[in-house]
Structure prediction request, 296 residues.
Amino acid sequence: MTKSSWKSKLTSSLFVIPYLLLFIVFLLIPIGYGAWMSLHNWDLLNPVHEFVGLKNYQKIFDPNSYLNDLFFEGLKNTAQFVVYSVPVLVAVGLGLALLVNTLPGKIRGIFRTVYFIPYAVSVSVVAIIWLWLLDTNSGLINQYLQKLNVPIIPWLTDLPWAWISLVKATLWWTIGFNMVIFINALNDVSEELYEAGSLDGASRWQRFIHITLPSIKPTMLFVVITSTIASFNIYGQPYLMTRGGPGTETKVLLMNIVDEAFKQRQLGNAAAMSLLMALIMITISIVQFRISNRKE
Prediction:
């Protein structure tokens, strides 16, 4: 190995080391510690943590255990939100990207910024804004409905309005990210392909179906997977806006995990539920990736 190549590899390693250290400290170690906790009866008020092996996992799958209801009811509600939100997040993100891309260059940057600004806002601010808009008794939207002699809508206290409200708030908050990703992908599509399609007599819709969508397929897969993961990790919106209501209809899995950890003080059970949730998310992502590759 020459001296210059050795120096080059050393320099490259120095750039990687900070990320590697952060990856180990903030990801690998917490995952390992969480897995260790899941194998113990870990009560926050008890200094002795008895090793129980896979008992915490067995309780989750035991129909007679309260953990079974806690986990699978939360999983069902989380899956509902994923099904409701992901198609909307992908479709609206792509639609906005197509719309913004048709604007003149100077105006395009303004719209990109305006749509992306909510993404920089914290979830607590998002919840406050949408509570102000959607509160059943004093929300701005219901006040206008009353002035128009239209019956008020229980946006946060009844179904399906509670889910609609959560999806709307999430869409407003996060759609800028998907839009920017799609805009970058659309800008990479060769103009020659569109010109060839026009010469062949293809309509705008046909060019979209046969040129645009196949060209941005890797980006589409990325957006679908990241949107699914983000929606699976929903917590702040239902916690702050609906409190899991009506009843427990919008109480998602992460809310149940937090309750088990800090209200019931059973960190072992909560860690087992968290790891199972992570495995489900990984499985869904792999299935999405495989299905996309198979279609290709």
In short: The first strand starts at residue 40 and ends at 41.
